Amino acid sequence: MSRVAIVTGAARGIGAATVDALVNENYHVIAVDRCRDIADVPYALATRADLDAVVARHGDVVLGLVGDVRSATDMQLAVETATRHFGRLDAVVACAGVLGAGAPLWEISDAAWDAVWSVNVLGTRRLIEAAAPVLIANGKDAHSRIVAVASAAGHTGLYHLAPYSAAKHAVVGLIRGVAMDLAHYGVTANAVSPGSTRTAILEASAKIYDLASVEEFAHQQPIGRLLEPTEIAAAIVWLCSASASAVTGADIAVDGGMTVS
Question: Of 23, 29, 100, 227, which residue is least crowded by CB atoms under 10 Å?
């Protein structure tokens, strides 16, 4: 029987790559994305056309759902849709994330701070709290999984990105706490922390730093290149697998060595 996952932030970037990778491992997927901009996020977010393109690649094994990760109602709908449409839920992957306006902390508005924290941290919480009862009910031997995308920024400070760094630190802490809460039930919870990856967030970062190209971020990583979303997705899919049963509360660095030193 095919396993079933929910992926948020699924319309592009790491989220879209994760949908593709899960389907390749015989998953059915509820692909969730907001599909509209947020006023205090300084770049365009994914569109409904982006989400539709992801769904179109996979036919009836992927169902697209427009929803805001910050909404408890929307995340509960995603869980209910998974169980109603595909009959079960085995894994949830919190890929939705945004980068805030680049400035010193003392120049950042409350609205800009709240935009970053609400999507990255509250959005992760909302997905987990909606899914946890179903994952627990699956039983200890069901290999139920929670994975959240954090960031190398959750291990270091980044110039003019204090809200984002703080939020990604919080995602890691949230996952570690949840892992302890769920360990008795056989549900694992882990984070993946990417380095500089070809995504819209990296493009927004390049604008903050007045860089001509995202390629200028490659020097941050000892491997000497940017990462591809598929590389992050591969780690996520492994954490969702039975092979990762002994891994919980971990934060897996997929950052080309960026945080080694």
Answer: 23
What residue type is assigned to position 32 of the chain?
Answer: V
CA dihedral 152, 34, 128, 187 (to 10 degrees): -80
Q: Which of 27, 159, 164, 209 is catalytic?
A: 164
In one-letter notation, the amino acid at residue 51 is: L
Say how far apart CA 185 and CA 181 lie, in whole Å. 8
pLDDT tens for the 261 residues of the chain, in order: 899 999 999 999 999 999 999 999 999 999 999 999 999 999 999 999 999 999 999 999 999 999 999 999 999 999 999 999 999 999 999 999 999 878 999 999 999 999 999 999 999 999 999 999 999 999 999 999 999 999 998 888 888 999 999 999 999 999 999 999 999 999 999 999 999 899 888 888 888 888 888 898 888 899 999 999 999 999 999 999 999 999 999 999 999 999 987
Nearest to 93 by CA among 2, 22, 186: 22
Q: Which of 260, 254, 98, 78 lies closest to 163, judged by CA?
A: 98
- Distance between CA atoms of residues 79 and 76, nearest Å: 5
